[in-house]
C-alpha cells in the first residue's frame, strides 16, 4: 500500500527504487528537516549544498536519459518512462525541488539524444557526465504564456515572441523566456523559438541547443517560488544571440516532434506529485500514531482515521493512473497523450487534497515552518501550475479525444 | 543434568553478569559449575565459588587465556563440555564471541540472548529487535545458551564457598594472537549494566546542557547517562550512549527520561526497565504512556531540583 | 586473494514486525525486504579491499528463496563479482547456514570470509563464529577495522568497554560491525551492469549438508505493553514515591 507494488516492477527497477529510497532517507530527508531555513536563503546558489547533488550523482540519478555509449545508463527502453516515474517519485518523496532539478536533465537528455547532431552529443554528454553540478533546462514558456496561449488558437498571432532568424551559418535568437525550471543554474539550454511567423505555432516553431556562455544570452533573474524552492527557476533574455546553424535541433515542427519529451515530462510531473503525497502520508501516519490528544493517540479518534483513509485512497488512485499512463507512453499506445495529461492533472489535484489533509491533521504544527508539513503543502500547490496548468491539461485531453471538433481552431462553426 | 556456566570476569573481579547467569541456570534445574578462564583469575574464581547455587568452580588459569580470545576459550569449553547437559554464558561481547564457536564444535544449535527459561529445554528469546518474543524448544542432546543478564536477578552470595578445581588448557588452536586493546575509561557505570540511567533527548538542546544539567544528577545517583537518537543525531552526545532499537537495549532498575518524547524506537530500548520516570513539559508526550511516574515540567527546572533533592537525601 | 561474503535477505529494519495471530511465527506478508544491514557493511568492506588492490575477486553467497537473488544482485551492483544462491524455501538455522557456507568455502577456497555480525531478523549473532569453528579458522567478530596482510589479518573488534585488536592467520573469518565502514548505495548504472554478472544457483543437497532444524519454535508472541503509571505533582513527590513505593532511591 501507498508505495508501488513490487510485483509490477522488474528486479532492476526494485533495486533502483531501493537505492533512491535509501539515499532519500539517509541524506535528503535529514538535510531538509534540519535545514528548513535553507530554502528561504535569498542567494539561490546557497540553497542546496553541493553535497546533495554529489550524493545524487553517487547513486547515478542525475544523468538518466544519457545513452550508454556516452557513459549514461542503459535503462530498458521499453520501460524507461516507468523507471523515470519510479525514481522521480522516490526523490520527490525527499524533496520535490531536488527531484525537479534532476528530472530536467533526464527530459532534456532525451531531446538531445534524439535530435542533436552526433558531434554535439559527443561534445555535451561527456561534460554533463563529468560535472555533478551540470544541469539542463528546457525553455518554452514566455512572459506572454505558453500552452495556455497557443493551445486554443494555433494561428500566427498566437506564436512565440522569441524568434530565430538564419543569418549565414548562424541562427540569431531574440526574445525572452520565463518560468524556466533550472533556468537560473543550467549550463545548457534547449530553446524554442518562432522561425516562421506566417503559420501557427505547431508548424512554425523550431528548437535550438544554446550553451549558457553564448554571447547574447543573459540569465536575468531567479524567480522566488512558493514551492520546489531547491530548484532555481529562472528567466532568460536573448539579444542577438548567435548560435551555429548545426545547433538547430528540429526545424518548424519542434513542438510536434517533442512529443516524446512532453509525454515523459507529464508522467514525471505526476510521479513527483505522488512522491510528495507519499511523504505527506508517511509523515501524517507517523504523527497520528504517536501524538496523543485527549488521552488517546490521534489515529484512535475516528475523524482523524477517516481523513487518513482518504489520503491513502487518493494516493492509490493517482498511482493506478500514473502506472497505466506511463505504460501507455512506454508502449506508444494511441491514447498515451490523453492518459499522460490525465495523470498529470489528476495527480496535481488529488495530491493537493492529500497535502491539505496532512496540514490539517498536524494541527498547529502543520502550519509551522520548522515542522516541514507546510513545505509539502507548498510543494504540492506549485505542481498545479507546473508543466501546464490543470485547465490547459484538461483542454489537451479533450482536444486529443475529439480532434475533429474540440481539436479545431476555436472560431465560429462552418 | 549438570550445567556449566562460563564466567564473565576481569581476572581479579567477577562481573555481576555471571551471578545473573547462575540464577538463570538455576531455573533449568541441576548442579551448576562455573568455569573461570583467564590469567591470574583466582580472585574471580573465588568470587564465583561464593555464589548461591554454584556447586563447583573450574579454574583455568593460563597466560593464553588472558584476553579471552574465542579460539582457545572455545577449545577449553569444548574439552570440558562432555559431562554437561547445558553450557551457558552471558550475552556479553565475550559470550557472543565464544559460545557460537563452542556450539558449532559440539554440533549444537545455540539459543541466543535468552530472556526467560520455561524448562530445561524451553527458552524465550527476543527477535526483530525485541518486537517479538520467540519460545523455542531445543532438540539437541546438549543446550548451549547465551543469557541476557539484565533479564535475570543476580544469584546472591552464599555463606559457604564451593570448591575450586584447577583444570588444564587443551592445545591452543594457535590461529589467533592478541595485539592490544583500548578500553574507554569513564567514572560512570557502563550504560548496559547500570542500575540507574539518566537519559536526555533533543530538548536538552546542546552538548553543554548534558554536562551541566544531566551529569550532576547522574553522578549523584551513580547512574549512567543515556540519550535518545534525536540527541545523538544532533551531536549532543556520542553514539555509544544511544538507547533504543538501533542503540543499546537496557533494563535498569530506574530509568529517568528527561525531555524525551518517547518515539517507538526509543521505547524499544528501555521499556523493560523496572521503574520509568519521565520528565517532559508536553503532557501528551508518548513517553508518559510507559512511565510509572510522570512529571509534567520543564526539565531545565525539574532536573536541577531533582538533583538537589536526591543529594539532600544522600547526605541525610 | 579471494573474499567470500555471506548475505541474508531480511525484513527492512524500519518495519515493525508483528507476530501472527496464531502465534506460529511473524507476519512477513507484504513486508519490505532488504539486505541485512550488517551484511551490506561486509560487502562494502570486501569491495573496498578489491578496489584497494588487496583482493582479486569478491564472491557473494546467499541462502534462501529465489528472492534472495535480488539481495545478491544488490551486492553485485555494489561491486561484487559473482554470486552463489543456495535455494531453499526452508528456514535455515545459523548452524546449518554455517555448514553450507563451509562447503562453499571448501569449493571456493577464499582467503577471507566476511559476514555481518548478526542478522536483524533472528538476532542470533552466530553464523560467522560457527563457520570459523567448523573451518578451524580464526575469527575476528564485531570488526570495526581490518588491516589485511599477506599471511595474516589484523582485526580491531568492538568489545564491551572499548576495542580489542587481534591478528588472525589467513584464511580467516571476519564479522562486520556497524563502524567498519559506511556502505555505498548501489548506483543506478551499476544496478544495470550487475544484471550481466553471473549468479550460480544451487540447492542445499548439492553440498550434502543437512538443514534439519534443531530448534522447534513453540510460540511467537509480542511482549506485553507497559501500562501508564501516575503523574506526580512535584519533584518532592517524585523523590518520595521513588523512595517509598518503588524502592529505587
TrEMBL record, chain A:
<dbReference type="InterPro" id="IPR046373">
    <property type="entry name" value="Acyl-CoA_Oxase/DH_mid-dom_sf"/>
</dbReference>
<keyword id="KW-0560">Oxidoreductase</keyword>
<dbReference type="Pfam" id="PF02770">
    <property type="entry name" value="Acyl-CoA_dh_M"/>
</dbReference>
<keyword id="KW-0274">FAD</keyword>
<dbReference type="GO" id="GO:0003995">
    <property type="term" value="F:acyl-CoA dehydrogenase activity"/>
</dbReference>
<dbReference type="Pfam" id="PF02771">
    <property type="entry name" value="Acyl-CoA_dh_N"/>
</dbReference>
<dbReference type="GO" id="GO:0050660">
    <property type="term" value="F:flavin adenine dinucleotide binding"/>
</dbReference>
<dbReference type="InterPro" id="IPR006091">
    <property type="entry name" value="Acyl-CoA_Oxase/DH_mid-dom"/>
</dbReference>
<dbReference type="InterPro" id="IPR013786">
    <property type="entry name" value="AcylCoA_DH/ox_N"/>
</dbReference>
<protein>
    <recommendedName>
        <fullName>Acyl-CoA dehydrogenase</fullName>
    </recommendedName>
</protein>
<feature type="domain" description="Acyl-CoA dehydrogenase/oxidase C-terminal">
    <location>
        <begin position="262"/>
        <end position="401"/>
    </location>
</feature>
<dbReference type="Pfam" id="PF00441">
    <property type="entry name" value="Acyl-CoA_dh_1"/>
</dbReference>
<feature type="domain" description="Acyl-CoA oxidase/dehydrogenase middle">
    <location>
        <begin position="139"/>
        <end position="241"/>
    </location>
</feature>
<comment type="similarity">
    <text>Belongs to the acyl-CoA dehydrogenase family.</text>
</comment>
<feature type="domain" description="Acyl-CoA dehydrogenase/oxidase N-terminal">
    <location>
        <begin position="10"/>
        <end position="130"/>
    </location>
</feature>
Automatic annotation (TrEMBL), chain B:
<comment type="function">
    <text>May play a role in a redox process involved in nitrogen fixation.</text>
</comment>
<feature type="binding site">
    <location>
        <position position="202"/>
    </location>
    <ligand>
        <name>FAD</name>
    </ligand>
</feature>
<comment type="function">
    <text>The electron transfer flavoprotein serves as a specific electron acceptor for other dehydrogenases. It transfers the electrons to the main respiratory chain via ETF-ubiquinone oxidoreductase (ETF dehydrogenase).</text>
</comment>
<keyword id="KW-0249">Electron transport</keyword>
<dbReference type="GO" id="GO:0033539">
    <property type="term" value="P:fatty acid beta-oxidation using acyl-CoA dehydrogenase"/>
</dbReference>
<feature type="domain" description="Electron transfer flavoprotein alpha/beta-subunit N-terminal">
    <location>
        <begin position="3"/>
        <end position="182"/>
    </location>
</feature>
<dbReference type="Pfam" id="PF00766">
    <property type="entry name" value="ETF_alpha"/>
</dbReference>
<feature type="binding site">
    <location>
        <position position="280"/>
    </location>
    <ligand>
        <name>FAD</name>
    </ligand>
</feature>
<dbReference type="GO" id="GO:0050660">
    <property type="term" value="F:flavin adenine dinucleotide binding"/>
</dbReference>
<comment type="similarity">
    <text>Belongs to the ETF alpha-subunit/FixB family.</text>
</comment>
<dbReference type="InterPro" id="IPR014731">
    <property type="entry name" value="ETF_asu_C"/>
</dbReference>
<keyword id="KW-0274">FAD</keyword>
<keyword id="KW-0285">Flavoprotein</keyword>
<feature type="binding site">
    <location>
        <begin position="242"/>
        <end position="246"/>
    </location>
    <ligand>
        <name>FAD</name>
    </ligand>
</feature>
<dbReference type="Pfam" id="PF01012">
    <property type="entry name" value="ETF"/>
</dbReference>
TrEMBL record, chain C:
<dbReference type="Pfam" id="PF01012">
    <property type="entry name" value="ETF"/>
</dbReference>
<dbReference type="InterPro" id="IPR000049">
    <property type="entry name" value="ET-Flavoprotein_bsu_CS"/>
</dbReference>
<dbReference type="InterPro" id="IPR033948">
    <property type="entry name" value="ETF_beta_N"/>
</dbReference>
<keyword id="KW-0249">Electron transport</keyword>
<dbReference type="InterPro" id="IPR014729">
    <property type="entry name" value="Rossmann-like_a/b/a_fold"/>
</dbReference>
<keyword id="KW-0813">Transport</keyword>
<comment type="subunit">
    <text>FixA and FixB form a heterodimer.</text>
</comment>
<dbReference type="GO" id="GO:0009055">
    <property type="term" value="F:electron transfer activity"/>
</dbReference>
<protein>
    <recommendedName>
        <fullName>Electron transfer flavoprotein subunit beta</fullName>
    </recommendedName>
</protein>
<comment type="function">
    <text>May play a role in a redox process involved in nitrogen fixation.</text>
</comment>
<dbReference type="InterPro" id="IPR014730">
    <property type="entry name" value="ETF_a/b_N"/>
</dbReference>
<comment type="function">
    <text>The electron transfer flavoprotein serves as a specific electron acceptor for other dehydrogenases. It transfers the electrons to the main respiratory chain via ETF-ubiquinone oxidoreductase (ETF dehydrogenase).</text>
</comment>
<dbReference type="InterPro" id="IPR012255">
    <property type="entry name" value="ETF_b"/>
</dbReference>
<comment type="subunit">
    <text>Heterodimer of an alpha and a beta subunit.</text>
</comment>
<dbReference type="GO" id="GO:0046395">
    <property type="term" value="P:carboxylic acid catabolic process"/>
</dbReference>
Amino acid at each position: 500500500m501507498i508505495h508501488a507494488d513490487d510485483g509490477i516492477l522488474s528486479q532492476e527497477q526494485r533495486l533502483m527504487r531501493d537505492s533512491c529510497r535509501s539515499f532519500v532517507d539517509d541524506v535528503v530527508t535529514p538535510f531538509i528537516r534540519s535545514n528548513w531555513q535553507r530554502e528561504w536563503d535569498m542567494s539561490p546558489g546557497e540553497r542546496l549544498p553541493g553535497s546533495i547533488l554529489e550524493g545524487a550523482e553517487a547513486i547515478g540519478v542525475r544523468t538518466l536519459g544519457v545513452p550508454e555509449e556516452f557513459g549514461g545508463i542503459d535503462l530498458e527502453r521499453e520501460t524507461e518512462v516507468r523507471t523515470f516515474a519510479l525514481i522521480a517519485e522516490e526523490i520527490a518523496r525527499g524533496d520535490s525541488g531536488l527531484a525537479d532539478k534532476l528530472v530536467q536533465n533526464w527530459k532534456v537528455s532525451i531531446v538531445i539524444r534524439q535530435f542533436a547532431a552526433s558531434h554535439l552529443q559527443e561534445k555535451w554528454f561527456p561534460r554533463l557526465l563529468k560535472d555533478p553540478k551540470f544541469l539542463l533546462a528546457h525553455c518554452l514558456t514566455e512572459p506572454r504564456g505558453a500552452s495556455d496561449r497557443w493551445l486554443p488558437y494555433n494561428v500566427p498571432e498566437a506564436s512565440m515572441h522569441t524568434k530565430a532568424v538564419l543569418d549565414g551559418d548562424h541562427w540569431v535568437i531574440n526574445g525572452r523566456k520565463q518560468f524556466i525550471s533550472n533556468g537560473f543554474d543550467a549550463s545548457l539550454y534547449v530553446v524554442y523559438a518562432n522561425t516562421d511567423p506566417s503559420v501557427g505555432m505547431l508548424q512554425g516553431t523550431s528548437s535550438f541547443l544554446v550553451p549558457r556562455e553564448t554571447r547574447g544570452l543573459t540569465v536575468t533573474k531567479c524567480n522566488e517560488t512558493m514551492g520546489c524552492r531547491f530548484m532555481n527557476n529562472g528567466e532568460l533574455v536573448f539579444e542577438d544571440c548567435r548560435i551555429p546553424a548545426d545547433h538547430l535541433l528540429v526545424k518548424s515542427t519542434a513542438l510536434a516532434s517533442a512529443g516524446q519529451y512532453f509525454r515523459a515530462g507529464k508522467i514525471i510531473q505526476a510521479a513527483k506529485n505522488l512522491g510528495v503525497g507519499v511523504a505527506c502520508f508517511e509523515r501524517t501516519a507517523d504523527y497520528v500514531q504517536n501524538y496523543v490528544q485527549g488521552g488517546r493517540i490521534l489515529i484512535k479518534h475516528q475523524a482523524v482515521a477517516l481523513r487518513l483513509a482518504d489520503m491513502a485512497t487518493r494516493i492509490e488512485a493517482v498511482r493506478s493512473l500514473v502506472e497505466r499512463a506511463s505504460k501507455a507512453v512506454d508502449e506508444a499506445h494511441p491514447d498515451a497523450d490523453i492518459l499522460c495529461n490525465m495523470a498529470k492533472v489528476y495527480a496535481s489535484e488529488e495530491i493537493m487534497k492529500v497535502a491539505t489533509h496532512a496540514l490539517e491533521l498536524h494541527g498547529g504544527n502543520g502550519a509551522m515552518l520548522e515542522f516541514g508539513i507546510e513545505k509539502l503543502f507548498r510543494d504540492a500547490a506549485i505542481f498545479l501550475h507546473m508543466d501546464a496548468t490543470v485547465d490547459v491539461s484538461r483542454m489537451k485531453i479533450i482536444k486529443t479525444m475529439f480532434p475533429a471538433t474540440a481539436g479545431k481552431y476555436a472560431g465560429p462553426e462552418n | 543434568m549438570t550445567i556449566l556456566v562460563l564466567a564473565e570476569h576481569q581476572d581479579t573481579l567477577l562481573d555481576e553478569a555471571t551471578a545473573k547467569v547462575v540464577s538463570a541456570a538455576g531455573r533449568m534445574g541441576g548442579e551448576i559449575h562455573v568455569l573461570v578462564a583467564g590469567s591470574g583469575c583466582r580472585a574471580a574464581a573465588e568470587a564465583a565459588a561464593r555464589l548461591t547455587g554454584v556447586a563447583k568452580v573450574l579454574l583455568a588459569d593460563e597466560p593464553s587465556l588472558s584476553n579471552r580470545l574465542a579460539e582457545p576459550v572455545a577449545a577449553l569449553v569444548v574439552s570440558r563440555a562432555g559431562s554437561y547437559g547445558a553450557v551457558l554464558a552471558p550475552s556479553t561481547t565475550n559470550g557472543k564471541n565464544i559460545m557460537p564457536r563452542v556450539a558449532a564444535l559440539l554440533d549444537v544449535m545455540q539459543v541466543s540472548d535468552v530472556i526467560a527459561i520455561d524448562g530445561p529445554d524451553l527458552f524465550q528469546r527476543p527477535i526483530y529487535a525485541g518486537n517479538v518474543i520467540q519460545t523455542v524448544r531445543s532438540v539437541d542432546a546438549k543446550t548451549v545458551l547465551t543469557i541476557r543478564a539484565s533479564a535475570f536477578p543476580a544469584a546472591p552470595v552464599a555463606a559457604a564457598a564451593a570448591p575450586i578445581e584447577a583444570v588444564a588448557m587443551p592445545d591452543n588452536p594457535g590461529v589467533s594472537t592478541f595485539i592490544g586493546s583500548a578500553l574507554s575509561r569513564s567514572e560512570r557505570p557502563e550504560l548496559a549494566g547500570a542500575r540507574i540511567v539518566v537519559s536526555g533527548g533533543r530538548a536538552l538542546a546542546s552538548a553543554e546542557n548534558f554536562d551541566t544539567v544531566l551529569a550532576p544528577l547522574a553522578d549523584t545517583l551513580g547512574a549512567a547517562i543515556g540519550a535518545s537518537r534525536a540527541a545523538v543525531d544532533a551531536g549532543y552526545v556520542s553514539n555509544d550512549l544511544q538507547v533504543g532499537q538501533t542503540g543499546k537495549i537496557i533494563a535498569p532498575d530506574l530509568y529517568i527520561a528527561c525531555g524525551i518524547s518517547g518515539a517507538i524506537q526509543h521505547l524499544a530500548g528501555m521499556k523493560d526497565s523496572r521503574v520509568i520516570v519521565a520528565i517532559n513539559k508536553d503532557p501528551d508526550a508518548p513517553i508518559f504512556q510507559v512511565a510509572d511516574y510522570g512529571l509534567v515540567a520543564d526539565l531545565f527546572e525539574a532536573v536541577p531540583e531533582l538533583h538537589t533533592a536526591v543529594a539532600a537525601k544522600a547526605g541525610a | 586473494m579471494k573474499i567470500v561474503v555471506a548475505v541474508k535477505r531480511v525484513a527492512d529494519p524500519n518495519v515493525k514486525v508483528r507476530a501472527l495471530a496464531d502465534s506460529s511465527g511473524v507476519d512477513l506478508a507484504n513486508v519490505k525486504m532488504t539486505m541485512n544491514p550488517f551484511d551490506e557493511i561486509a560487502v562494502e568492506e570486501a569491495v573496498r579491499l578489491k578496489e584497494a588492490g588487496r583482493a582479486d575477486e569478491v564472491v557473494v553467497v546467499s541462502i534462501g528463496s529465489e528472492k534472495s537473488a535480488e539481495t545478491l544482485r544488490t551486492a553485485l551492483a555494489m561491486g561484487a563479482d559473482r554470486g552463489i544462491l543456495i535455494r531453499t524455501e526452508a528456514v535455515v538455522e545459523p548452524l546449518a547456514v554455517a555448514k553450507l557456507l563451509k562447503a562453499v568455502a571448501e569449493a571456493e577456497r577464499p582467503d577471507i570470509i566476511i559476514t555481518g555480525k548478526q542478522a536483524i531478523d533472528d538476532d542470533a549473532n552466530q553464523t560467522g563464529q560457527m563457520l570459523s569453528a567448523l573451518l578451524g579458522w580464526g575469527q575476528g567478530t564485531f570488526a570495526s577495522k581490518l588491516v589485511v596482510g599477506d599471511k595474516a589479518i589484523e582485526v580491531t573488534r568492538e568489545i564491551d568497554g572499548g576495542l580489542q585488536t587481534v591478528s588472525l592467520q589467513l584464511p580467516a573469518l571476519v564479522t562486520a560491525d556497524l563502524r567498519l565502514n559506511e556502505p555505498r548505495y548501489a548506483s543506478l548504472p551499476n544496478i544495470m551492469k550487475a544484471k550481466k554478472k553471473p549468479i550460480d544457483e544451487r540447492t542445499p543437497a548439492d553440498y550434502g549438508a543437512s538443514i534439519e532444524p534443531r530448534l522447534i519454535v513453540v510460540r511467537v508472541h509480542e511482549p506485553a505493553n507497559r501500562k501508564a503509571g501516575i503523574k506526580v505533582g512535584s519533584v518532592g513527590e517524585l523523590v518520595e514515591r521513588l523512595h517509598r513505593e518503588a524502592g529505587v532511591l
